[in-house]
């Protein structure tokens, strides 16, 4: 089929099976640029290409410098680093976390967009935070129970010792 031949269409205006709207398009079985590049890199050409591009960067090529800088430097994604004043263990307490973010927003230390992102982060972490908070409260309750049991045991031992002394006197 040449470019001057009309393309076959069905009665509803769609292309007939096997007939394309672009008869001069890529032939079947032709490989994409990405597939061909992957094959070249798999053959070991990647190292030499990388060395050549690195030489361009050393030579002052700004595009090559930017390429390596973007991939090698640790750039924060999506904004700047925000530090919130949280006490030890407070990172799992959503109320404390929200209050610290609200205070930082009110003081002008963070932008409303940053406060919004912190809120989104806390919303996604909420199930984990709740589980950690429950575990911490259970551990605190266990510690209180253990301290009360130890106190009762010490009191019982003191009473037993006093009873023994009373019998000896």
Word description of this protein:
By secondary structure, the protein is mostly helical. It folds into 2 domains: 40 residues, no CATH class; 79 residues. It contains 4 helices and no strands. α1 packs across α2 and α3 crosses α4. The longest helix has 57 residues. The radius of gyration is 36 Å and the shape is elongated. The termini are far apart.
Notable features of this structure?
single chain, 169 residues, mainly alpha, 2 domains, 4 helices, 63% helix, elongated
Number of strands: 0
In total, the number of domains comes to 2
Report the helical percentage: 55-70%
* Radius of gyration over all CA atoms, rounded: 36 Å
Strand residue percentage: under 5%
Find the structural class using helix and strand composition: mainly alpha
Distance between the termini: 123 Å
Shape: elongated
What's the SSE pattern? HHHH
Q: What integer is the average pLDDT? A: 82
Number of helices: 4
Biggest sheet layout: none
Q: pLDDT below 50 for ≥5 consecutive residues: which ranges?
A: none
Helix and strand topology:
Blueprint: H1 33-58, H2 62-72, H3 94-106, H4 112-168
């Amino acid at each position: 089929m040449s470019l001057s031949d009309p393309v076959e269409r069905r009665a509803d205006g769609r292309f007939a099976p096997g007939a394309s709207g672009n008869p001069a398009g890529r032939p079947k079985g032709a490989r994409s640029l990405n597939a061909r590049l992957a094959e070249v890199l798999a053959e070991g050409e990647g190292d030499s290409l990388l060395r050549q591009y690195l030489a361009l960067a050393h030579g002052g090529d700004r595009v090559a410098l930017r390429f390596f800088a973007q991939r090698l430097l640790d750039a924060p994604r999506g904004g700047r680093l925000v530090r919130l004043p949280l006490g030890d263990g407070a990172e799992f307490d959503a109320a404390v976390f929200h209050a610290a973010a609200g205070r930082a927003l009110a003081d002008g230390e963070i932008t409303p967009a940053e406060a919004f992102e912190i809120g989104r982060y806390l919303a996604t972490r909420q199930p984990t935070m709740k589980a950690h908070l429950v575990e911490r409260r259970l551990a605190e309750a266990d510690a209180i129970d253990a301290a009360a049991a130890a106190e009762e045991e010490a009191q019982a031992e003191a009473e037993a010792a006093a009873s023994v002394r009373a019998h000896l006197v």
